[in-house]
Amino acid sequence: MDESYCETPGARPVTVASGAAESGPPYAECVLCREPTEYPESVKGITLCPVCEWQEAQRTACSG
Q1: CA distances for 33 relative to 10, 11, 21, 22, 51, angstroms
Q2: CB burial class (10 A; 0-12, 13-18, 19+) of residue 37?
Q3: Cβ atoms within 10 A of the Cβ of 49, count?
Q4: What is the mean pLDDT of the chain?
Q5: What is the rounded average pLDDT of the residues 36-51?
Q6: pTM for this one?
């Protein structure tokens, strides 16, 4: 069995709110409000800040 197939990704990056933004990698901007996210700029795809991520989850949870 190919072990790389079942490999889990690393831990989530340190959040900007924890104060580590200055020492960490450059963080990506939220695609909706342009606030810093908890993801490094190297992450591909749509990046959302925690607030927009929560609001998006609320919208999709309520759309029946």
Answers
A1: 27, 25, 18, 21, 9
A2: buried
A3: 24
A4: 76
A5: 92
A6: 0.55
Cα distance between residue 53 and residue 64, in whole Å: 19
- As a whole number of angstroms, the distance between CA 47 and CA 41 comes to 9
Token pair of 13, please?
């990056």
Q: Which two tokens stand for residue 33?
A: 């409000």
- 3-state DSSP assignment of residue 27: strand
What DSSP state is assigned to residue 16?
Answer: G
Nearest to 52 by CA among 35, 40, 39: 35
Q: Spell out the alpha helix ranges (H) of 1-64.
A: 50-62
